[in-house]
Design a protein that fits this description.
With about 120 residues, the chain is of the alpha+beta class. It has one domain: Alpha-Beta Complex (Aspartate Aminotransferase, domain 1). Helix 1 crosses helix 3. The relative contact order is 0.18.
Length: about 120
């Protein structure tokens, strides 16, 4: 992984730090962050964020700045996998938006009733 990918992984780790159930693992050239064995997000080379979303919201999220369908090798992934360009997640507020989207899509977001 390059410096930009490592920096993004550090930022993701810091923002998810309080969530002890998050597992971090190297997968497919990406530093993946998993909840209950399912990928939430991944820090990719170039500082690109891989985001797992539910298919029904994936198409709508493609309208967000910097979002595109993820590409793995020669394969363009389904609308449930998005790449978010480094320039679109330069600040922690923008990055947190995508972390929240991923957690809501996988059902791992904590609702106020669960606090």
């Amino acid at each position: 992984m390059d410096a930009a990918g490592n920096e993004l992984a550090d930022r993701v780790r810091a923002l998810l730090g309080a969530e002890t159930e998050i597992e971090e693992r190297r997968m497919f050239g990406t530093r993946a962050f998993l909840d209950d064995g399912r990928i939430l997000v991944g820090a990719r080379p170039g500082g690109v964020l891989l985001v797992r979303v539910d298919d029904e919201n994936g198409a709508a999220l493609l309208t967000e700045p910097g979002a595109a369908r993820a590409v793995m090798g020669a394969r363009t992934m389904s609308s449930g996998w998005l790449d978010v360009a480094a320039g679109a997640i330069e600040d922690d507020t923008a990055l947190m938006f995508w972390l929240d989207v991923a957690r809501e899509s996988t059902g791992s977001a904590t609702s106020p009733e669960q606090n």
